[in-house]
């Protein structure tokens, strides 16, 4: 506050020409004379001096008629001095603090925009890692974790066909989704094909499923991403595995199912 008081004296002596000179400076550069803390103290000082001046004016209004001229003159001088100090503090705040505060706000807005753009870029990176039919492409695919026991692993071409089959199967209501439903269907011996996500970690949660499939002679295959399976199932949640139950021969899905099944059987040595 001592620095602020000294600055007020300088401004009072130099007049408001100093403030006019300052207006010609670039507003993009914050002033280095006063810190943010001192600016807050200056703002609080304006409020304090105005409040003190109001108190003196109220005192004059209440007791002025009962007091002598000397008392009234002293009180009026005190009220005017407090008002002048409030005015001077306000001038200091306008001249030295507003530019700095505005600059800080600009910096914060830039940082906010940067963070916002980073989030948008991250979303684009994830969204852009998928092609039109929802399959993962490019560098994103290579970064996916693939379990060492994910064998057989579907090729990109077969993965697309499997995802299309799952989408059609969802419409025909022949898809068993998730570990619980898939295991239940396999144990019952339902005919179909099982698609398992290769990026499940820990893989222990699904390690029993291939053994069950082999025991029941049900063809199974891994695809790279549980997110792809989830999207094919029309859910935002990743799906670890599904079973596409064999459709009726007359159903539209039947041809796609038989094609995918034949390719999966070729990669399952225990079925050959």
Description:
It is a single chain. With 272 residues, this protein is of the alpha+beta class. The chain has two domains: 126 residues; 134 residues, 60s Ribosomal Protein L30, Chain: A (2-Layer Sandwich). Helix content is 63%, strand content 7%. The chain contains ten helices and four strands. A four-stranded mixed beta sheet has the order 1-4-2-3, with helices on both faces. Helix 8 links the parallel strand 2 and strand 3. Helix 1 packs across helix 4, helix 3 packs antiparallel against helix 4 and helix 6 packs across helix 10. The radius of gyration is 38 Å and the shape is rod-shaped. The N terminus is likely disordered.
**Total of helices:** 10
Mean pLDDT, to the nearest integer, reads: 77
Q: Which second-level CATH architecture of the largest domain applies?
A: 2-Layer Sandwich
Write down how many β-strands occur, each being a DSSP E stretch of 2 or more residues. 4
Sequence stretches where pLDDT stays below 50 over 5 or more residues: 1-31, 127-142
Please tell me the total number of domains.
Answer: 2
The CATH homologous superfamily of the largest domain is termed Ribosomal protein L30/S12
| Helical proportion, percent range | 55-70%
How are the strands of the biggest sheet laid out side by side? 1-4-2-3
CATH topology of the largest domain: 60s Ribosomal Protein L30, Chain: A
Q: What is the beta-strand fraction? A: 5-15%
User: Per the principal axes of the C-alpha atoms, what is the gross shape?
Assistant: rod-shaped
- The assembly state of the depicted protein chains is single chain
- End-to-end separation in angstroms reads 89 Å
| Helix/sheet category | alpha+beta
Radius of gyration: 38 Å
Instruction: Output the helix-strand order.
Output: HHHHHHEHEHEHEH
* Main sheet attributes: strand count, strand direction, barrel closure: 4 strands, mixed
CATH class of the largest domain: Alpha Beta
């Amino acid at each position: 506050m001592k620095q602020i008081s000294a600055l007020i004296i300088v401004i009072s002596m130099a007049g408001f020409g100093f403030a006019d000179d300052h207006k010609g400076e670039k507003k993009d550069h914050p002033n280095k004379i006063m810190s943010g803390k001192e600016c807050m103290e200056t703002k609080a000082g304006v409020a304090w001096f105005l409040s003190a001046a109001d108190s003196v004016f109220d005192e004059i209004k209440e007791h002025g008629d009962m007091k002598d001229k000397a008392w009234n003159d002293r009180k009026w001088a005190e009220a005017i001095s407090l008002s002048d100090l409030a005015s001077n503090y306000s001038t200091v705040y306008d001249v030295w603090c507003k530019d700095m505060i505005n600059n800080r706000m600009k910096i914060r807005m830039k940082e906010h925009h940067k963070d916002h753009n980073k989030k948008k870029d991250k979303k684009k990176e994830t969204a852009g890692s998928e092609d039109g039919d929802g399959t993962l492409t490019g560098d994103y695919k290579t970064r996916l974790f693939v379990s060492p026991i994910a064998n057989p692993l579907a090729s990109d071409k077969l993965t697309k066909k499997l995802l299309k089959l799952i989408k059609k199967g969802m419409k025909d209501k022949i898809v068993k989704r998730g570990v619980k439903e898939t295991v239940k269907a396999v144990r019952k011996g339902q005919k179909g094909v099982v698609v398992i996500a290769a990026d499940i970690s820990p893989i222990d949660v699904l390690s029993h499923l291939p053994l069950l499939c082999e025991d029941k002679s049900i063809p199974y295959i891994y695809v790279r991403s549980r997110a792809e399976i989830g999207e094919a199932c029309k859910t935002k949640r990743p799906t670890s595995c599904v079973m596409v139950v064999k459709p009726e021969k007359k159903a539209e899905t039947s041809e796609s199912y038989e094609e995918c099944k034949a390719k999966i059987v070729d990669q399952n040595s225990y079925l050959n």
